[in-house]
Each structure stands twice: as structure tokens, then as C-alpha cells.
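Batch job 17 of 40 flagged for manual review because the log was empty.
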Amino acid sequence: MKKQDIKLLERAARVLRVLAHPMRLEIVRILKDKKEVSVHELQAALEASQSMTSQHLAALKNVGIVSFRKESNVCHYYLQNRNVLKVLNCIKESCKVSE
């Protein structure tokens, strides 16, 4: 296997590992329909602490799924890689078939 193919598979595995958490999936779901959401809004929607929300956002940011823009001292998060929605839709559809 080519070195670049291995790197692509390793990156795909990292993205899938990060997505394999219910709270992170919920963050992606929330961001899917909104342009931007502040950490405070996400925290309230998730009913989670600020530190827990920030940790999950950091994991999603590290693999390029989300990004943010800072306005004053408020971070507004958005989906940077919307292609992840296609992957999640495939997973959702495959779960329906196996039920």
C-alpha cells in the first residue's frame, strides 16, 4: 500500500474515533442546521459543563470537523468540514437497516 494511502486511512480512523462519542455527534447535529453557535449556547443545549463542552469541541477541531471565529471573548463554532454529514448520514441509514 502506498504511503499516502496509509496516511489517508490513518486520518479517516482519527476522524471516526473522534466522532464515536454521543456528545460530539450531538454537537455536529446542532451545528448542522446553524451557521454558528457560541460555546455558551452549545453548553446549554448539551446540558454540560463549560469545560466538558470545550474538551469535545477541541477534539472536533483537532481533526478539522469544526472551527471557530472569535468575537470579543466569545467563540462561535461552525462546521468546517460538512462532508462529515455524509458519513454520519450513511451510518444513520445503516443503523436503520440493521434494526
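Reviewer: the log was empty due to a logging misconfiguration, but the result itself is present. DSSP finds five helices and three strands in the chain. Unflagging and moving on to job 18.
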